[in-house]
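Pilot study result, target chain (228 residues):
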Amino acid sequence: MIVSNWKLYDASLFKGLAKNQVEHVLGAMQPRRMEAGEYIFRMGDEGVSLYLVAEGRVHVFRNSLEGREKSLAFFSPGDVFGEMSLVEARPRSAHAVALEDTVVLQLFADHYRHLIQRYPLLAHNLARIIAERLRRASEEVVLLSFENARVKMAHALLKLYHQRLGRATEHGWLIPETHKRLANHAGTSRETVTRVIREFKKEGLVEDHPQGVLLKDLEGLEAILWGL
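Predicted structure:
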């Protein structure tokens, strides 16, 4: 497979592998082109492969019994998702949808097993990715269970920033989300989000923007998150 996005060679999944080894792994992956809004997989689907984002962006989320959407992650080129299917044969636990026209590379479990016999470092890299995500998930459970609304909101905004949702502007990082959707990210109500955003504005941490919320002071948000 010809790779047009050279950033893929720096993907966490390939850390420590030589260029020709990365090319061999990429050659075992099947490309899929997805239109904006198209589901890559749905919750409950059989999990048989890992995905690597080659172009575009992917949103992974799930819905509560009441139909409320909970965003889990946003993925950009070089990121992998759906990785648990390579280590356990269980149905998908969330939905994955293309946010824009997207190309993903699909690595099936049987190909993965052959590759790690030749490149054991590939398995180590995947284990490291899974461990990091489990650690972050544990931290989020604690934050959303015990911390106050300001901490929840700071955590949600910083998480979206680190997942590169939005874009850089001359005045800060723009998060293109409504207060209602931010409430889903933070695990709180829209009214609470509006109140906390108003407080953050007074403190110079954020600003209103026609397309969402503008992050002005990342260090200030981190200080709130960690109680500094």
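One observation from the pilot: DSSP finds seven helices and twelve strands in the chain. A full batch analysis is planned for the follow-on phase.
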